[in-house]
Amino acid sequence: ERANLMNMMKLSIKILIQSALSLGRTLDSDFPPLQQFFVVLEHCLKHGLKVKKTFIGQNKSFFGPLELVEKLCPEASDIATSVKNLPELKTAVGRGRAWLYLALMQKKLADYLKVLLDHKHLLSEFYEPDALMMEEEGAVIVGLLVGLNVIDANLCLKGEDLDSQVGVIDFSLYLKETQDNDGKQDGGITAVLDQKHYVEELNRHLSCTVADLQNKIDCLEKTNSKLQEEVSATDRIGSLQEEQQQLKQQNELIRERSEKSVEVGQPLKVTRKSLCKELEKELELQIGMKTEMEIAMKLLEKDTHEKQDTLVALRQQLEEVKAINLQMFHKSQNAESSLQQKTEAIASFEGKTNEMMSSMKQMEE
């Protein structure tokens, strides 16, 4: 994987520099070779990232290592401030892409990444030991990035959907470059196709991850709306309880007044009867309100249990999807190793065939 990514980065940088020099103008974000360069660079920075568990699942973002640059290199604080001041960026991936855009425009991209490589003890918090940024390939790529300082880029971040865009590698650019540089296309095509299989697997995995995260977001939004309804219902129950308490106090006052009025004399019997009727009505109203509150509480408990069951089912589905993704990844690795073994066997057979042909020529002579 590291070798494939390094080769693709070499090709993307070479194509970007050649096309930029041939045009002789300032590049913008719509320039296809520049877009391909950022896609490949993003894959390089994501290689070997450690998984961090969050509330909505697992998260792998390359923006975490880039945030270290501000601490290690004070002159990068302008980039960090600019990224934080962009309100349209909602995710760490979007902020990471904006950071790369700004670093390229400053012509400091190679310098900043070199600072990270010089502090690998800090990078070990974000990357696995065999990640590209932790191995020799990372230093080679940083050296290649120095050549981009000859390019002038003017990238507009406002209006760009950096959060949700999914970068897809266009192999036609790399295939054309390989064919132009080498008349014997077989070796170049084979190398590009090997890289194509690898990146297709990455793109498929990214597409599945994006779809899975979108489904989780939809489920969370629905759950949030239901919880808000439950909170409003709970507030309504509290207000009803307060009203009930006030009615009880009013009934107590009315009862005391009625008792006092009875002590005054018989002419107040009519008033006492009317008061009793009002008390009976108030009591019936309180009983009805209490029944409504009990029904509402039961409905809330039932809805809560259903949500808990749904959450358990969603977690089980998530674990199954993770297992399937891991199984597919292992199968892909096995297929690649089998293909490599067959390629080595073919090369060995070709060598033996050449030896036999030379022996036959010698025997004929």
Characterization of the model:
By secondary structure, the protein is an all-alpha fold. It has a domain at 1-52 and 59-177: Methane Monooxygenase Hydroxylase, Chain G, domain 1 (Up-down Bundle). The protein is built from eleven helices and two strands. The protein has a two-stranded antiparallel sheet. Helix 1 (2-23) runs antiparallel to helix 2 and helix 1 runs parallel beside helix 8 (136-145). It starts with a helix and ends with a helix. The relative contact order is 0.08. The mean pLDDT is 80.
Could you give a quick summary of the protein structure above?
The chain has 365 residues and is mainly alpha-helical.
Distance between the termini: 49 Å
The strands making up the biggest β-sheet line up spatially as 1-2
- Gross morphology is elongated
Counted beta strands: 2
CATH fold field value of the domain at 1-52 and 59-177: Methane Monooxygenase Hydroxylase, Chain G, domain 1
Content-based structural category: mainly alpha
Helix count, DSSP H or I runs of 4 or more residues? 11
The proportion of strand residues reads under 5%
Low-confidence stretches: none
What is the makeup of the main sheet?
Answer: 2 strands, antiparallel
- The CATH superfamily of the domain at 1-52 and 59-177 appears as RUN domain
Name the CATH class of the domain at 1-52 and 59-177: Mainly Alpha
Notable characteristics:
365 residues; mainly alpha; Methane Monooxygenase Hydroxylase, Chain G, domain 1; two-stranded antiparallel ribbon; 2 strands; 2% strand; RUN and FYVE domain-containing protein 1; Run_dom; coiled coil; Run_dom_sf
